[in-house]
Design brief:
Radius of gyration: 17 Å
Order of helices and strands: HHHEHEH
Shape: globular
Largest sheet: 2 strands, parallel
Oligomer: single chain
Structural class: alpha+beta
Strand order of the largest sheet: 1-2
Number of domains: 2
Mean pLDDT: 88
């Protein structure tokens, strides 16, 4: 799992970008990183992408398990960026409750989109975690 924590029920409006106005959503995306000014500042292109962002965020913002799920007996390795404004270390570690075989948390330098700068080391870590999953 990368740059995403366990589902949660409580979240403030600030944590629910799908409810933001277009201007608020654009500013929020600028702050989080990972989106180019060519997309966020282009009034001709924005209407095409805004519904996609909103749909993704609505799913992430509103889904929660219907009951307290039993931890799954599967290995789970978690990865994240040290400066991630969306998913901090505590939220990443919250995934421990969903497995009986938590394999650990690896943090990389960067924000929510840390993977853009750490593709090779992250791929190696995922490969190693996958290979050792049966152990």
């Amino acid at each position: 799992m990368s740059a995403y924590g366990a589902p949660r029920v409580e979240a403030s409006t600030d944590d629910r970008p799908h409810l933001m106005s277009n201007d608020e959503l654009r500013a929020w995306l600028r702050n989080v990183g990972g989106s180019t000014p060519q997309l966020l500042d282009n009034d001709a292109v924005w209407p095409t992408f805004a519904p996609v962002f909103r749909s993704d965020f609505k799913l992430l913002d509103t889904w929660a398990p219907r009951h307290d799920p039993q931890p799954l007996p599967i290995p789970l390795s978690v990865f994240g960026g040290r400066r991630d404004k969306l998913t901090g270390e505590d939220r990443l570690l919250s995934l421990q409750a969903f497995t009986t075989r938590f394999r650990g948390l690896a943090m990389y330098e960067g924000d929510h989109f840390y993977v853009m700068d750490h593709g090779q080391p992250l791929a190696a870590a995922i490969t190693a975690a996958t290979r050792s999953a049966g152990a």
